[in-house]
Amino acid sequence: MSDNQKKYTLRPSWKAFLPQYLLCILLTPVFGIGLLFLVYVYSLHRNSFYQISDHSILIARSGKETHSIQIAELDSTRVERSWLDSKTGIGTLIITSARDADEYRMVGLQDPEKLKSVLDTAIHFERDRKEFSQEVQDHSPDYAPGTMDPLNELVGMWQQGLITDEEFERERKKFE
What pLDDT, in 10s, does the model give residues 27-69? Predict the structure, then answer.
């Protein structure tokens, strides 16, 4: 990864964990189970992030589950919102990989429609970039590097009349 590559790190909103936090509050009077659950939910929330760069997306959840997806390998994106998500102003962005048809969920994002449109544009440009680089690679020369320069000199000497036709043919055969 180059140093000048831009990376953006997003974290899920606390609103995505609202039901879990409310359950922690309700369970606190029951032998302190709510406090243990609160620590677990908080660590799950704080250790989840999404890192988006020019060519890839890194999805990390609770420090254990990490997925890295190349943007050119993405097939589609869509946004899902539950009733609670629509009331709290968050949503889930689901991206599908074209390589293995897996779905990856980016949960608890503020304004996921905006990120979806940016990713759709990035997918389009990344695919175009890969197609263009393949076209450039397909047009490689049919001759070995460095063999055309001496041949060009030989043709120039023959055109100027510095060497005869026989000398030109004899030297030209060495390049074939």
Answer: 888 878 888 888 988 988 888 999 988 888 999 887 677 888 8
Percent helix, percent strand, percent coil in the chain, to nearest 5: 50, 25, 25
Q: What is the pTM of this model?
A: 0.67
**Do β-strands 90-97 and 74-80 pair in parallel, antiparallel, or remain unpaired?**
antiparallel
Sheet holding 74-80, edge to edge: 74-80, 90-97, 103-110
CA-nearest of 33, 44, 163 to 171 is 163
User: Which tens digit of pLDDT belongs to each residue from 17-35?
Assistant: 989 999 988 888 887 888 8
Q: Which residues lie closer than 8 Å to 162 by C-beta, 6 or more apart?
A: none
- Give SS3 for 90: strand
Q: What domains, with CATH codes, occur in the chain?
A: 7-125 (2.30.29.30), 144-176 (no CATH)
